[in-house]
Design a protein that fits this description.
Layout lengths: L9 H8 E4 L3 E4 L10 H31 L2 H27 L14 H29 L6 H27 L17 H29 L6 H28 L9 H9 L4 E11 L5 E9 L6 H13 L3 E8 L9
Parallel strand pairs: 4-5
Antiparallel strand pairs: 1-2, 2-5, 3-4
Length: 340
């Protein structure tokens, strides 16, 4: 009799997943994806490379302008640009490492390189912020007023560059794969955590440029020169909040927490309600980083179909967009015979 989980595409997948386990019970495991970027991930990498070139080129210009204008907030923003270039380069390297082929030692590949890079980038932000605060405190004590006209010019230029860079990264995070990219929904998230860290740098720089612009206008129209360090403190506070949030999210990945969009209780109820499933045991959900999730579970089933595990695995992949799914099926447990 045809099993209730059988689909019209099952013959394309059955040979990929079924293999023995334990007492000859069927197990289905998701095979690692092939190395290399998907179309969407390649687009993300290209955007990140473009931003590195754009920000690196402007860093030299803004640093010279900040020294010329004698502005604390511009110097802080220029220094942050330098850490951005270093951090973005680390992020791009991590993206390329993360898609390398799995090895006998790293059986899931090196996807965890991405949250590690995100944490490193956030720590660079925090280090830069500490320097910004120290410079601001010094400016309160003894500092000649900055050249407001030059501050306005370079702040406007920095705002344009940083806003353009932030838009490029945000568009890469929000975009979808097209054309020949057949990796499926599990790939469309790409390297989101890594790009969020990079995007945080760009937003922080844009905020720094806005703060410098406002401070320059205040000083230009007769306001207090302390507007310069005060603007720097405001940017520092925003950067600290954003960096800590990235560290928290990356830490959840490294601690193998279940992703927020894949709650364990919801998945358990979904599997338990499928035809042929009696109970769900040992359900584990985690993410390898960058939208590459994994699920392992053991189910008791009254189905005698040897391909039940493979088809249940494919159903979960298709429904949840999960890359790795491993299903072990236990036979139905009969009540003990009272005659024994």
């Amino acid at each position: 009799m045809k099993s209730p989980l059988r689909t019209e595409h099952e013959h394309e997948h059955e040979h990929e997943h079924g293999h023995g386990h334990g007492h000859d019970q069927p197990v289905s495991g998701g095979a690692p994806s092939s190395a290399g970027f998907t179309e969407h991930e390649a687009r993300q990498a290209r955007r990140l490379g473009t931003v590195i070139l754009l920000v690196g080129g402007f860093f030299v210009l803004e640093l010279g302008g900040a020294i010329w204008a004698d502005s604390v907030v511009l110097q802080a923003d220029a220094l942050h640009l330098l850490t951005d270039v270093l951090s973005l380069a680390v992020n791009l390297l991590a993206m390329r490492i993360a898609v390398r082929e799995p090895t006998p030692r790293f059986t899931y590949g090196l996807r965890r390189a991405e949250p590690i890079a995100a944490i490193m980038g956030s720590l660079l932000v925090l280090g830069t912020t500490a320097f910004l605060v120290a410079e601001g405190i010094h400016a309160f004590r003894e500092r000649s007023p900055p050249k407001a006209g030059l501050m306005l010019l370079f702040a406007l230029m920095a705002l344009c560059v940083n806003a353009c860079s932030a838009w490029l990264l945000h568009d890469a995070m929000a975009g979808h794969s097209h054309g020949s990219d057949r990796a499926g929904p599990r790939k469309k998230h790409g390297h989101v955590l890594n790009l969020r860290s990079a995007w945080l740098h760009m937003v922080g720089d844009a905020l720094g440029a806005i703060a410098a612009l406002v401070a320059a206008l205040i000083i230009r129209f007769g306001g207090s020169p302390t507007a310069d360090p005060i603007a720097g403190f405001l940017v520092a506070a925003i950067l600290v909040v954003g960096a800590l949030r990235i560290v928290f999210d990356a830490g959840l990945v490294l601690l193998e927490a279940a992703p927020a969009h894949l709650p364990v209780a919801t998945i358990r109820a979904m599997v338990a309600g499928l035809p042929g499933v009696e109970s769900v045991n040992d359900l584990h959900v985690w993410t390898l980083g960058g939208g590459h999730e994994a699920i392992t579970l053991c189910v008791s089933s009254r189905s005698g179909d040897a391909t039940f595990a493979a088809r249940l695995s494919e159903k979960l992949k298709g429904s949840l967009g999960v890359e790795y799914v491993t299903v072990q099926v236990e036979p139905r447990r009969l009540p003990p015979d009272p005659r024994e």
